[in-house]
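Dear colleagues,

I hope this message finds you well. In preparation for our joint manuscript, I am sending the Fat storage inducing transmembrane protein 2 (Chrysemys picta bellii) sequence together with its predicted structure, so that both groups work from identical material. I would be grateful if you could confirm receipt.
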Amino acid sequence: MEPLDRCARPLRTALVRSSMRLWLPWGLLGLMLGGSLLKALGPLPDSYMSSKRNLLNIYFVKLAWAWTFWLLLPFIAITNYRLSRNVLGTLRRISTLLVGTVAWYVCTSLFLHIEDFTGSCYKSPALDVLFQEHLSKWQCRQGGGFWHGFDISGHSFLLTYCALMIVEEMAVLHVLNTDRSPRLHAVVNALFVALSFLTLIWVWMFFCTALYFHDFSQKLFGTLVGLSAWYGTYRFWYLKSFSPGLPPQNTSLSSKKPNCSR
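The corresponding structure tokens are as follows:
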């Protein structure tokens, strides 16, 4: 387990601290603005990351919520139960993933409806001749046309939300001590390292999206929706009693059952 510990130590220093949770939202907004500015200043040379067929996009970004969900599920379950020793309290915390799934589905569906509502079908990418008979993106593509509408960046939204959610949930490591249980220590460390690298991938691909794809307004709206979803949950709703609650950050929780009525 020494190599895993050596890998986890610098990652904990970088990611598991309150300053990271404070500054990451601003950092993502800065990356979006910086990448968009570089894109606007002039045509960027083609690169591997400018292709939608790059492996990170195909195998990670396209499945971003699935990766985030299935790695956070055991991490939240194990760490929260270890601290609270309460099954209902742990299930309550796991419900954050249900909230995230609803946010992902509702927002991406809304983006598709907006693109349909604001778009038109054209006969070529030059957008010069309209296909009047095709009234939706699906009909347009089925008819061999090219749909052009306000395409809010789903990648900017989802990568923002996933990165912030992971960093929020990793805050539990401030108070979790697994030194007396080597097996638990190994499992938590493995999940933490995997989540850390996943976060780095999300941030990197978020920047690549800002650098190579979408118009500025589309990326701005996507990023702001992702920030709003994070803020509305972790900075507002999860502070209320009738909510999944925040990750345990008080050592006293390890000896008390969560009070759902406070």
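For the figure legend, we might mention the following. Confidence is low (pLDDT under 50) at residues 252-262. The first strand starts at residue 120 and ends at 122.

With kind regards,
E.M.
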